[in-house]
Design goal:
Layout (H helix, E strand, L loop, with lengths): L1 E8 L4 E4 L4 E4 L3 H8 L5 E10 L6 H13 L4 E5 L5 H8 L6 E5 L12 H14 L3 E6 L2 E4 L3 E4 L4 E4 L1
Parallel strand pairs: 1-4, 1-5, 5-6, 6-7
Antiparallel strand pairs: 2-3, 7-8, 9-10
C-alpha cells in the first residue's frame, strides 16, 4: 500500500510563534510523527492550503477534491482542522474508487497532550481496512461523514 497524505492545515499543524504570541500553520506534523514511529509502508505527504478550517472556502474544498482525484493513490488521509472537516468530507463523498480518511487534532501535534498521534494511528489502520468512501477519524472512532458532528462542549466528535 502507498498512502497519500494531504495536509490542509488546522490545529494539528499549528506551531507557536513566540515573537507574535500566536499560533500559525506550520509544516505537516504527520511527516515527523510517521518518521518517529518508523512506519512500515510507503507514503507521501503534500502540504496545501494551510488554513484554519474556519477560514476554508468552497474553492478550497474543490482544490482538495481535485487533488484527491488527480493522485493515483487509492488510500488517502487528509489532515484538516476540526471545525469544518465534516463539510470537506461531504464534498469528498463524490470521489469514487478511493478510501479517504480525514483527521485532525484538538491540540497541536507539537503539544504534549495532543491527540494527533493517536488520531493518525487510528486513521492509518482505518484507511487500510475500510471500504471505499469518505470517513472522519477522531477520538478513537471512525465516522461516516453523513452521521457525525463536532461537540465543542465535550471536545470530541459524536454520532448524529
Amino acid at each position: 500500500m502507498k498512502l497519500h497524505i494531504l495536509a490542509v492545515g488546522g490545529t494539528i499543524d499549528k506551531v507557536y510563534f513566540d515573537a507574535l504570541s500566536d499560533y500559525k500553520i506550520g509544516p505537516p506534523a504527520v511527516s515527523e510523527i510517521l518518521q518517529r514511529v518508523k512506519v512500515n509502508f510507503d507514503y507521501d505527504v503534500r502540504q496545501m492550503i494551510s488554513k484554519d478550517s474556519l477560514d476554508m472556502t468552497d474553492a478550497d474544498r474543490q482544490e482538495i477534491l481535485n487533488a484527491v482525484q488527480a493522485h493515483p493513490a487509492d488510500h488517502v488521509i487528509i489532515t484538516h482542522g476540526t471545525d469544518t472537516m465534516v463539510d470537506t468530507g461531504q464534498v469528498l463523498k463524490q470521489v469514487l474508487g478511493k478510501t479517504i480518511v480525514i483527521i485532525g487534532a484538538m491540540q497541536p501535534a507539537i503539544m504534549k497532550l495532543t491527540d494527533a498521534d493517536f488520531n493518525l494511528g487510528v486513521a492509518v489502520a482505518a484507511v487500510q481496512a475500510l471500504p471505499q468512501g469518505a470517513y472522519l477519524c477522531m477520538n478513537g472512532r471512525i465516522y461516516n461523514v453523513d452521521q457525525v458532528m463536532k461537540n465543542r462542549a465535550e471536545g470530541q466528535f459524536q454520532d448524529l
